[in-house]
Design brief:
Layout: H1 2-28, E1 56-58, E2 72-76, H2 82-90, E3 94-100, E4 103-105, E5 119-122, E6 129-132, H3 137-154, E7 158-162, H4 177-193, E8 197-201, H5 207-210, E9 216-220, H6 232-236, E10 241-245, H7 250-259, E11 263-266, E12 276-277
């Protein structure tokens, strides 16, 4: 009788351990479920996650001026050599690397890697640039991930993917709101998989759906268009909102930007090294 009891207890323990392994396996694979079947919350990883009040500089043209006393530099992924990134790191500065995720640019070194099927209409006002069909990740995905690999290999701490609001533009494709959310969330997942911080560029209407996936936001001219309130969820979540105005007088918007805890700069359209920091007001 005692032998049967001992055997029963052993089998019971084995069964409990087996069930525990199954439950852990299911939980660990939740991130592999299709989008929409779960609430996806970006994990608090080791990548850079800035808070409001982070000083920064945005320079995408001209010789990079490394002298600004700021915590973060946002520079071009392709144009800036690794030596500059290393220089920033030696000075204990964060480096974010800019690239366009939603458009094709004819001057980029990987322009020939984009299949013709994903190239859409020209971006109005931007010669040599065309919208991409972000739905075709089977064709486009490897090109974008190669850019993220480049960012990782060059030592970028984060990325600023541009043109992630093609669904609101005349792209030449029937892109939907859901298509854009899927693509943008995929971008964030791919960046985080490489230990890269990622910011949501403009795309204000989708902030409620993408807030959990992105580490910070970058906006252009929300004061000019009276839409800065749409950025409040990032601030409420303790995530930095970087922004620029090009035409307004800093005196007309900087005090409000500071009150809202937004980190705004006055910049030239060409995004050279000139800047006025609203935090100085």
């Amino acid at each position: 009788m005692k032998k049967h009891l001992v055997l029963f207890l052993i089998l019971l323990c084995v069964a409990i351990l087996f069930l525990g392994v199954i439950v852990l396996a299911i939980l660990s694979r939740q991130g592999d479920l299709p989008q929409g079947t779960q609430q996806v919350i970006a994990p608090h990883g080791d990548w850079w996650q800035p808070v409001p009040g982070t000083s920064w500089q945005w320079q995408l043209s001209g010789t990079i001026d490394t002298s600004s006393n700021v915590q973060m530099y946002d520079i071009d992924l392709f144009d800036v050599p690794k030596s500059i990134i290393d220089e920033f790191h030696n000075a204990e500065r964060i480096v974010v690397c800019y690239f366009s995720a939603g458009s094709w640019e004819e001057w980029r070194p990987d322009a020939a890697d984009f299949p013709p099927e994903v190239l859409g209409r020209d971006l109005s006002g931007w010669p040599g640039e065309r919208w991409l069909d972000i739905r075709q990740l089977d064709l486009l995905g490897s090109v974008i991930t190669a850019r993220l690999d480049l960012a990782q290999n060059k030592g970028c701490d984060g990325v600023e993917p541009d043109n992630v609001d093609g669904y609101q533009n005349d792209s030449g494709f029937s892109l939907t709101y859901a298509d854009q959310v899927t693509f943008n969330r995929w971008l964030a997942e791919q960046a985080h998989a490489r230990g890269l911080s990622i910011g949501l560029k403009n795309d204000l209407e989708q902030i409620p759906d993408l807030l959990a996936d992105f580490d910070w936001a970058l906006n252009e001219e929300c004061f000019s268009y009276a839409e800065c309130d749409l950025l409040k969820p990032f601030i409420a979540a303790g995530k930095a909102v970087f922004g620029v105005e090009y035409e307004l007088d800093p005196a007309d918007y900087c005090p409000q930007a500071n009150t809202m805890d937004l980190d705004f700069l006055q910049k030239n359209w060409e995004l050279d090294n000139w800047r006025i920091d609203c935090r100085d007001y």
